[in-house]
Structures are given as structure tokens and as C-alpha cells.
Amino acid sequence: MDLKNKSNLTNEEILDTRKSHFLPTAFLYYKNPLQLVKGKGCYVYDEKGNEYLDSFGGIVCISAGHNHPKIKEALIEMLKDDEIQHTSTIYLNKHIAELTEKVISEAPKGLDKCSFTNSGSEANELAFIAARNATGETMVVNLRHGYHGGTSGTLANCGQSSWRFKAQPVASTTSAMEPYCYRCPFNLKPESCSLECAKNVETTIQTSTHGKIAAFIAEPVMGVGGFISPPAEYFHEVCKITHNYGGKYISDEVQTASGRGGGNFFLTKELKIDADIITTAKGFGNGAPIGAVLMKNDIAQAMGGKLYFNTFGGDPYQTKQALVTMDIIEEEKLIQNAKEMGDILLSGLKDLMKKHEVIGDVRGRGLLVGIELVKDRKTKEYAKDETLEVMEFAKDRGLLIGKGGFLGNVIRITPPLSINKKQVEKIISVLDEAFFELAKQR
Fold first, then answer.
1. How far is CA 68 from CA 40, 48, 65, in A?
2. Mind giving me the DSSP string for 376-388?
3. Taking burial as the number of CB atoms within 10 A of a residue's CB, which of 95, 152, 275, 313 is the most buried?
4. DSSP structural state of residue 178
């Protein structure tokens, strides 16, 4: 393809480049993929100017809203002032220092050491390194259905076969049962169970390790797994088990932090999880490539005498954008808004569940909301194709939604935290139409 003197590429030209040169692992949403070129607030626009309500927030990355004026102003000022774009941590820079102080102020007490990365995958890799180094152990316990990133160590702790590769090394990892109330692996009900899923973590340690572990890792809400949202008591029990067997508890908040849970900046703090390490990314920088790892002092001190370095981790522009994002979340009371809009959204979707048999479950916290679709409520057969049809219908009516779950049958809704009631009502209305249309076609 000759790209000389071309200011715009058609969808066909972009698809041709992808087919010719992208890895086959790159996937697209929709039968006719969208080329998104602009964003503002809760809306994005394609190359033809069509407007879409972005209720997936990029991929759970947009917290303050697309192109927030304060973020734009801050970055433009940096460029005008010729501020250095790359320094790394071998030099001093005020932006990384200011962000460090800010993020630690939001963390649970005791997590007062911080390091920045380029992504959530890297953040979790660093968490594994730190936990293994501090404990002298290697074994990490993860959860079936879990997902923690696309690097070697994180994929070794992935609980879904579709993300793993044939030669994926899985040494020093083991998986416990998923705390999936809708599809309880123990065939129990939340109101009558005794946290068997949490106790299974201990059983897993006793039967799959030598009796000591380096870490346990879990998301407060399992994102790619389909927004599985265990009760707080699950995490309390697992923390005790983890610590009893010498391990460090890693709370993966790559998707759940930045106030998206509707209570605190970190959902770990809201749920009173006694974590030793917290990782985050995505909404932390409102789309900027930045992640963070927070850990307790004893873990950090154990790393002394070794070198750890991330070339772009903590660069000025990324740290400034994350800092301004945190300021916006605080000033505009977006955590409170996430709680209020999330309540409206969950209530509306549960009303839809009464009308549409294809909806098997509605769950989530704040603006982390999942709708699990099933072919039959009794058998809970995964409705993968139906999920894709609903996504297409919604897109054609100006609504973008995400999907996840073990077989891709869970609609994921994670709009910017600035979403308003009218926009939430549009999400509910369009999905209502989509489910009615799906029933007619089926």
C-alpha cells in the first residue's frame, strides 16, 4: 500500500494493513469494524462523524472522560514550555514525585512504597517479582477465570485457555476455584454457602504446593472473567489463608481502581482487603500508558541490593496526566457519581432481566457492570452468539459495549465516571430494544 501523501486511510486500507502485517492475535469488534477518530466526554466519533456513547470506556481505560479539558490544557502547557518528555527515574522530576504522594494518599494504610510502569501487565509482573523476592518462595496462587495481563508471567497466571499459548510456561503457579456465585463450582447459593470457594484456596495450597507460597493474586471484580464480583467476606478469608501460608496478597486493580467501584479510589480499601501489594493501570491515567504498583515497606526493602528499571515507567507526561486525572476524579466527585449512576444502571438492568429470558445474571459494583447472557436460565448454557448480536444492534444505535466472560457471553459496561443519568438511561433503553429484537430473530 502506498501511504505517501495520504492524510486519511479508509477502513478497507487499514484492514488490508492489519491483514498483511498485524499478528493474527489482533481481534476486532463488529462485523463492520469501527474506525474511531475523535472523543469528547462520554462520546466517540468515527471517520464519518457518527456519534457513539462509549459505555466501555475504551477498554475500561477512560475514567475522567475523553479529552477532558483540564488534561488537554496541562499537556499543551507542558509542550509549550518544552518540558522534557523522557527522563526515567535516574533523574529527578517533580511530576513523578507529585503523583507518588497523591496515589499513596489514596491507598490503604501501610502501602507506602510505589513504582510506575507502562501497563497493568508490567505492574503485575513487578508484583510477582516483589512477592517472590520478599518471601523466598516461587509459587503464586491464582483463580480460574482470572486474567492479569499479556506478558509471560501474567499469562502463566491466567485462568482462561483462550489467552494461553501452547508453549506458555506455567511453572510455579497453581489455580484455585473461582468465586463465581452465578456459576458456583460447588453448586451452592450465596445465601447458604460457607465460603467454600475461599476455603478452596487453602486446599489448593495444601495439595498443589509444598505448603508455602509467594503470593495469591485476585481482582476485586474479575474483569475479563466477566465482572465476577465476590462478596467482601471472600477476600477477608483468602487474605488470612494467604498470610497463614507465608504469602503476600496481590490485589489486581488494573480495572477496578480510580474510583470505578463507587466507594474509594481503590476498591481494595473499600472492601477492607488486607492486601500487601496493589497494582493498577487503565483508568489511572485516563488512557495514558501508565500503571502503578503499591506495596508495603517490608516487601520493598527486601528488594534492596538489586536493580529494577523501567525505561518509560514514570515519565513526565504520563505521570502528569495521571495526576490531573486523579485531581479531576476528586474535584468533580466522580467516585460518588460512579456509585449513583451505577445504582441506576444496575437497577435498570435488573428490571430488564424481568422481561428478557436471555439475561441470566446482572452484577457488578459502581460502574463495573456485567450482564451474563444465557440460552436457557435453567441450564445456563452460554449465549455467545447472542452476545455478539446484541453488541451489533447496540452499535448500530450509537452505543458501544464490551464483552468478556469465559466464553464471551458477558456484556461489560464501564463508561467514563462522568456519565450522567440521561446517558445511563440511553444504555438501558438501547439494550432493552436489543433484547426485544434478539427475541424476535430467535
1. 7, 22, 6
2. -TTTT-B-HHHHH
3. 275
4. P
User: In Å, how far are 70, 93, 304, 319, 406 from 314, measured between CA atoms?
Assistant: 20, 9, 20, 6, 34
Question: Angle formed by the axes of helices 196-208 and 232-244, to 10°?
Answer: 20
Name the pTM for this structure. Answer: 0.96
Q: Which CATH number fits domain 73-331: 3.40.47.10, 2.60.40.1120, 3.40.50.720, 3.40.640.10?
A: 3.40.640.10
Rounded Cα distance between 332 and 420, Å, is 12
Calculate mean pLDDT across residues 107-121: 97
174: exposed, middle or buried (Cβ count in 10 Å: 0-12, 13-18, 19+): middle
CATH of 11-64+333-441, one of 3.90.1150.10, 3.40.50.620, 3.30.530.20, 2.60.40.10: 3.90.1150.10
> Residue 85 — pLDDT band, cuts 50, 70, 90?
very high
Residue type for position 356: H
Q: What are phi and psi of 360, to 5 degrees?
A: -90, -35
3-class state of residue 244 by DSSP: helix
pLDDT at position 168: 74
Question: How far, rounded to the nearest angstrom, does the alpha carbon of residue 397 sit from its chain's CA centroid?
Answer: 26
Same fold, 11-64+333-441 and 73-331: no
Helices first, then strands: H and E counts in the chain: 14, 15
Find out whether 125 and 252 touch, Cβ atoms under 8 Å.
no
SS (H, E, C) 245-271: CCCEEEEEECCCCCCCCCCCCCHHHHC
Dihedral sign for Cα 95, 98, 104, 110, please.
positive
> Measured over all CA atoms, what is the biggest interatomic distance in the chain, rounded to whole angstroms?
67
Instruction: Please count the other Cβ atoms lying within 10 Å of the Cβ belonging to residue 57.
Output: 28
Contact yes or no for 38/30 (Cβ under 8 A): no
CA distances from 5 to 2, 8, 9, 35, 36 (A): 9, 9, 11, 20, 21
Which one-letter amino acid corresponds to residue 436?
F
d(CA 442, CA 440): 5
- 23 to 10, 27, 403: CA distances (angstroms): 20, 9, 21
* Domain range annotation of the chain: 11-64+333-441, 73-331
Task: Answer for the pair 345, 427: CB distance below 8 angstroms, yes or no.
Answer: yes
Do the strands 248-253 and 277-280 form a parallel or antiparallel pair, or are they unpaired? parallel
396-420: pLDDT as tens digits: 999 999 999 999 999 999 999 999 9
